[in-house]
Amino acid sequence: MTNDIVDVLIIGAGASGAAMAWSLTDTRMKILCLEQGDWVKPTDYPTNGRDWESRPDFAGSPNVRCRPEDYPINDANSPIKPVNFNGVGGGTVLYMAHFPRFHPSDFRTKTLDGVGEDWPLSYGDLEPFFAENDRMMGVAGIPGDPGVPAKEGLLPPVPLGVLGETVANGFNQLDWHWWPSESAIATEAFRGRDKCLNLGPCATGCAQGAKASTDITYWPEAIRRGVELRTRCRVREITVRADGFADGVIYVDADGIAQRQKAEVVIVAGNAIGTPRLLLNSTSNLFPDGLANSSGLVGRNLMLHAMALTQGVFDKPLKGYQGPIGCSLWSKEFYETDLRRGFARGYTMEILRGSGPVAAAQMGMATGVLPWGEGHHEAFRQMFDRTAAICAVCEDLPEEHNRVTLDPELTDSDGIPAARIDYQLGDNSQKMLRHAGERCTEVLNAAGAVFVAPTITSGVVSGHAMGTTRMGRDASSSVVNEWGRSHDVKNLFIADSSMFVTSGGVNPTSTLQALSLYVADNIKARLANLFDD
Amino acid sequence: MVTLISSEIPFSPDQRQRLQELSDLMIPASEPMPGAGDSEIFAGTLETLARHQELVVQTLDRLESLEDIQSVAPDFAQVFQTAVATSYYRDDRVLEGLGLPVRAPYPEGHEVDKTDWSLLDPVRKREPFYRNVGWDTGDD
Fold first, then answer.
1. Using CB atoms, which residue from B102, B112, B119 is nearest to A323?
2. What is the ipTM of this complex?
3. B39 CA to chain A: closest CA distance, Å?
4. What architecture does CATH give domain A2-354+386-528?
5. Helix B13-26 to helix B53-62 angle, to the nearest 10 degrees?
């Protein structure tokens, strides 16, 4: 079945696809977004029910969630397990809303530190789009952080609570930097969203609607301005004309029927695993190795962020399960390169609030803090609500052997080949992880922890996939140009974190949305000659 | 909360009994707390374990003793302790025993005390220390 041709077809309704769709409404073009998942009703979120900590249908891993709209990911050959969400809002439905921006130095790693590559754009280029994105999402914080560039328009900060104040005192004891995290959470009524109720587990979705997921930020405005969003439509491949231009897609609808959708411009916003998967599945006589892949780099340079998780147990209740779990305070003390540490680049220390009893018990058993048998109850009372955790988000460098490919056997529910990731932590990351674990332990001890568990660096999960269709000016060493257009296919654009050249040491959502708005702005500015060389 | 009916649980009566014994070994009853082998709690555990039927059955078949399961079958132990913790720590009696609210987080939420931001005073005195580079445009 063939549908009417549209001017712009966006694939994916997540963080970046939503921003792209909203921005392009300025053009009055006919815009269609295809999303393989569905809308999520606020009443479906786990925090509405007593089983709020045990809902596999809202797990971060698609391999656990196993909804029909999820595509599995073979992650057996990776110490870091990717998480995502397939639905309107994408990863923002389940993210923690920790909302730092990349730092200015992140765009110049080759020049400054001799590692990675420089981006073909700068922090200055993105700054207006960071600000525009903040206005749409709503970001809480306190201005004046000496660790990051100044910004304006912040909502009141998320309160630290006992746990945050306790750890902040540890940083002060060491004279190390800390600051309340910038958080995409409405701490007061904001653009139709009510204020945060401190439910706690933001990572299973926000029943209150205070967390800025794009299904409740960008999408209502984009739809009001004329964008058509079609859900339960899984794109199987992007099709091309004889002249090498993309002419649309074939997608599978909710009834399992293949549909043809033609378009003048195709924009892929499927995240750094879903996007290369789609391009690699889009083979043709013209593009036998996958679409936009003349460089051979589609799927390569996958970055997931090395993460070091360190937990400390205190001798007082911390009320940690009260408040947004991922949004408390951060430290940029070790963000910028200091080669005396033995590695290049750096990391952000992000303090996590405590979890509910189920997650606390699971983590306690996994780390050996919580024993089986007679001592179990006493040990649980000693640790539950007395545990603070620090996650160090470490920049990992782009390495071509870390990659997304198509799995030879695994498929999604429509029989489309699934993604496989092969990923190893590099030497620089290993050194950074060791350093981060030691520093996190130091903070927790300074804050008064009576016990600090060994740092965990393997088996951690990450929703921070980046780099698999990197941007650049040279078509032999990048997949898209400096404004997101494919080098090979002049009417094909990427709008997500696949374009990232390096990974920074922060959560990527703010930056990937700013980048999407930047690409949209370039499309709007070049409409008259969008496809020219 | 438990959605599987007993005829759908893919374990034999003997296997269920051994799993129930093991649950009680992991988290024994201790007033006022029930043990993890409590029938209501154990039903939830079984529901989770049903998703790992092959691993569970294979492990039980080769185990001679339950006490050494963590060293003999670490993969199973991981799955099992996750299943037990998930069912046990959502039980009303357990939550009451811990003094926790027996309710969903929404819509009541939690009241978090206001922060005394004078805590930040030492940091406010610090000069900006991020590397202030890269503001030039990419076209420069």
1. B112
2. 0.92
3. 18
4. 3-Layer(bba) Sandwich (3.50)
5. 90
